[in-house]
Amino acid sequence: MTQPMDETPLLSVRGLTKHFVGRNGRTVHAVEDVSFDIRRGTTVGLVGESGSGKTTAGRSILRLVEPSGGQAIFDGTDIFALNPREMKDWRKRLQIVFQDPYSSLNPRMRIDAIIGEALDARGYPRGAKRRERIAELLTLVGLPPEYSRRFPHEFSGGQRQRIGIARALAVEPDFIVADEPVSALDVSVQAQVLNLLGDLQQKLGLTMLFIAHDLSVVEYLCDEVVVMYLGRVMERGPSRQVYAQPRHPYTKALLATAPVPDPTRKRTHVPLQGDIPSPINPPSGCVFRTRCPVAIDACAQTIPPVDHIGGNHHVACIRHGEL
Amino acid sequence: MPKLRVEIMTATLPADTILSVRDLKTWFVSKRATAKAVDGVTFDLKRGKTLAVVGESGSGKSVTSLSIMGLLAKPGRIAGGEVLFRDRAEQVHDLAQFAPKQFRAIRGREIAMIFQEPMTSLNPLYTVGDQIGEMIALHSDVGRQGARAKALEMLKHVEIPDAARRLDEYPHQMSGGMRQRVMIAMALSCNPSLLIADEPTTALDVTIQAQILDLLQRLQAQFGMSILFITHNLGVVAEVAHDVVVMYGGRVVEQAPVNALFAHQTHPYTKGLLACTPDATRDLGTDGARRALYSIPGSVPPITNLPPGCAFEPRCSMAVDACRTGLPPLIPAGPETFSRCIRSHEL
């Protein structure tokens, strides 16, 4: 309550909506009316299960898929309103790191060419200075610069993800979407990449949207968290607050079901029954009500508003006050 | 040679043990290289219990399970060791010596397996009822109607809602969680005494994973089957396992009862694995400041090019010269606990 926002957000997403229309005319409601802010130099985590729309939301913000509606005010400009040519200039400031470090690097290109491609987009001249820049980027992500003439298959998964990060950083972006950057990696390598992302953010003052399904990773890395379910925001707020005092039944369930590496803290029950419904025909009212342990009749009637409940904490549940 | 090893090699299968893997070696030999994917793995699974085999990619955990089931793809072959299995008639077989034909009497009826990705294990062209029924018909003489009735019963056991209607659905009409339930129904339809579950929840979301883990534990209590649970997720291990085997580079590096393992690790690899999983209470200060996560340097070495001594030595902060010279033996490191680390007593 008492803590005002210390800065205007670098990115304000307002009412982001993405519908995919199939050939049979059916509409997939992938992302529906999603709003959140990312303050400069901070990391926001976007969490949810498969089908929650988190990846589509991240890609829509970069216009890698064209959003169906809403705004993304980036440093004062609504980038959804830009024409493709204008957008091209903005892309230098907005980059993405993909989940799968195997399929996101061209196997027939050497590392310097992969990173060089990003430099080309920035109009970086060829020559010694370019080689220097590539060496500098590799050093930045913790790879020996002499690896620049190698091919992707010569690297491990963790090293490839470092290359993917170097490519994203090549154009000196302000903002990075990291789409599940560690979930394809072995556990022993995940920590290295998480530490790297944390260090780079501090060193370069990056602002980051971190998409993940692993709650412990998000809690560790992110200043704020946005919890999505079936295309909608269920709860968002400062990570510490949301993890310590989740207010939405879905957030509570997610936190209760995540397995903990401690056999003395075993779960006692499964709070959520059933599966995530189809986004082609989402439930009326609150999309979570079909699996919600505390749903009442009223939940089917209206889409719950995203209520501000103090600090920067928001929750979309009509029963949040009584539970 | 430590005493433990001699005992294991000479003892017969204890009455409470359903599966005993002893010095199992599974090699993939090609002209260019020999990949010792499993190199001298030993463990016991007690009747009605769950043994978790934990490891990262390339640790040999999946090849171990495929070796037990006789499902190795060429050029993989069992190069040594025993896989002793006690069947329902209390007969002990060495599955390592089995011909492909002999496995038919064991697979499905005595040992069943579920895999990570249920979609690729189900035939998209048949209804789930037909597929479960086929399994039942193959292993019993109940007839078509009987098989269908039993298939329905199994779908109810795995708590598929509206089971009678689901029986006539195709795999693509089901969610990932439902398909894994179908796989479990099929695996348990002939009441096997051993279920091998190879990363059965890895492709599933956490809320669905919790459902499947609960289901497996309930079914274990109901049917009394033993479970060999292959996973990379230590959280899942803590939840389902009674005993744990940690693998690295094709070998067992640590073995312990689940509570002992999580309370105190006797191998630097296990300790490192646990330490590099983010934990907010440990890794965030009271002011929310992030501490750097503990990380294991380097990456998992390729199985064709393991160091001569301890496979973990190049990444280990405790490594000394002796670690490089010879393969450390698996030595007792506590009650029912074994470690393949010469410095385990210092941990």
TrEMBL record, chain A:
Primary site of residence: membrane
Start and end residues of each ABC transporter domain: 11-255
Recorded superkingdom: Bacteria
Listed GO biological process terms: peptide transport; transmembrane transport
Record's keyword terms, sorted: ATP-binding, Nucleotide-binding, Transport
GO molecular function list: ATP binding; ATP hydrolysis activity
Location of this chain's protein in the cell: Cell inner membrane
Organism, as annotated: Devosia limi DSM 17137
UniProt-recorded name of the protein: Peptide ABC transporter ATP-binding protein
Membrane topology designation: Peripheral membrane protein
Lineage: Bacteria, Pseudomonadati, Pseudomonadota, Alphaproteobacteria, Hyphomicrobiales
Single GO cellular component term: plasma membrane
UniProt keyword Nucleus present: no
Family: Belongs to the ABC transporter superfamily.
Coiled-coil boundaries: none
Automatic annotation (TrEMBL), chain B:
Single annotated GO MF: ATP binding
Gene Ontology terms: biological process: peptide transport; transmembrane transport
Entry's localization field: Cell inner membrane
UniProt GO cellular component terms: plasma membrane
Coiled coil location: none
Source organism superkingdom: Bacteria
UniProt keyword terms in alphabetical order: ATP-binding, Cell membrane, Membrane, Nucleotide-binding, Transport
SUPFAM superfamilies: P-loop containing nucleoside triphosphate hydrolases (SSF52540)
Major subcellular site: membrane
Keyword DNA-binding: no
Residue ranges constituting the ABC transporter domain according to the UniProt record: 21-274
Membrane topology annotation: Peripheral membrane protein
Family per record: Belongs to the ABC transporter superfamily.
NCBIfam families per the UniProt record, alphabetical: oligo_HPY
Annotated protein name in UniProt: Peptide/nickel transport system ATP-binding protein
Species this protein is from: Devosia limi DSM 17137
